[in-house]
TrEMBL record:
GO MF term list: protein-transporting ATPase activity
Chief subcellular location: membrane
SecDF P1 head subdomain domain segment(s): 169-264
Protein's name according to its UniProt entry: Protein translocase subunit SecD
Every Protein export membrane protein SecD/SecF C-terminal domain range: 268-433
Subcellular location: Cell membrane
Signal peptide limits: none
Amino acid sequence: MIKKIILAVVVLLLGSGVALFVFKSEPKLNKNFDNANSFFKNHPFRLGLDLSGGSHLIYKADISAVSAGEVDDSMSALRDVIERRINLFGVSEPVVQIQHSGLISGAEEQLIVDLPGVTDVKQAIDMIGQTPLLEFKVERQKGEPITIKPGPDGKIDEKILQEQQFVSTELTGRYLEKATLEFDQNTREPRVSLQFNDVGTKLFAEITKNNVGKMVAIYLDGAPISTPVVREEIPNGQAVISGSFTPTEARQLVGRLNSGALPVPITLLSTQTIGAILGDSAVNAGVKAAVIGFLLIVLFLILWYRLPGLIATLALCIFILIILALFKLLPVTLTAAGIAGFIISIGIAVDANVLIFERAKEELRSGRSIADATSVGFSRAWLSIRDSNISNFITAVILFWFGTSLIKGFALTLGMGVIVSMFSAITVTRIFLSTLGFIGEGKVARFLFSSGFSK
């Protein structure tokens, strides 16, 4: 019995430690947050766009020139570039997600960008739109047909005709390692030096080798900015962009290229701005719903299951603290849908206790002692608890795998809640109940372990 009591005290102390972490790491709860340890400062709740306010942008990625086997890699590279670009502006906790096309919805490849705290849509668009698309094109082979439609006046646009002289290659800004500003030693004109990564170096070497004596056009954002003639193969992966740049323009281009050149073109489809006031209202509504739901569950547990219900309430508090701590440590971006999943997981955590207590009550009616009835109740309820939680977890996984970003937030918090609830219901509740052997088997004990309005 002493070992069981010590174990219960250890669980309570650990729960208190988790509660202290949740409290001290949250600015709205800790008045001395500014003076807190850096560990606590680095783990506040991470709120999604719908709770913190900001801009929500949806882009369409043009993958028409990308082979089917390279779509995933190109989209991942695009996401990384956009994230790097946004981070340069110091946006707190940006979220950049890929929305793949599906056979059912038939949607195109999309990039979803959430910028918390950025309520100026134009500013948000500029953060992403200023990232250049860098392409390298070679001269079209002689005899290769060119299809050019004349304009309304029957004439052919000279610009279009010039662009048709070049064809795209695999070498794009995706393989750019860094860009630097240089000045020509003779003319002192600014130019931009490019250094490719290993893959880009091989591609550039192959392009220059196969096009000696020909022009290789360098396109930036769809427009040719330089068309140098290849004199010899360049195996070191270094290229130079020269033109009528001013030093300021060249410096800006270097900065833009280093912040990431887009591997595929993107087009803005839609924008949405959520104000900070609306976000605060959503947070307050979510917290209010969680508190009311928790209090109603506690009231039900204590009134209907009495002492075991009180123990289950204590286990439920530890469950909530563990979940909140995991939200901070992983971290999990909390959205309104995610809070809904968390609230539902509180109800799921109670389901296991209900099954255990009902089985224990049946064993008490059959004449078993309180200790035996509790032990058998846990053992016989386990299979039902296991199966129900596995089915809930499978549902959460399916929702997360196939759902949109909104559904994924709900599925993630629900799935985490299912896993932690099994620990709190089976382990924590059992540890606390096992320490109650001292109450004996008298009428008072039987009353405390009865349920509802029974005696």
